[in-house]
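Hey, resending since the last one bounced:
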Amino acid sequence: MPHTIYRNFRQVADAEGARSALLAEGFTNSAVQLNLHEARPLTTTASAVQNIMDSLTPDDVDNTDKPDRPAALLAVDVYDDAQREQADQIMARFGAQEA
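The structure tokens again:
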């Protein structure tokens, strides 16, 4: 039974590169799923609350001026520890972060 591992990427191009490398190393197309993170539209209320919360914390503490949100999520089905290690090593080369 497969186990799925998930990794975030800051750039879509990095996630696509990792996906291509996984496929080149023998992972099947159905075992590798790329999902883009889409920013949710802010409502007036959510925007106001976010602005209030951002103003309560100094920028150098919470980095509100530079949000660092992942752009894509890669999900990989692995069947054993060897595949998991191989997938982790490949994705790490492209800057993967645990989801």
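The radius of gyration is 17 Å.

Sorry for the duplicate.
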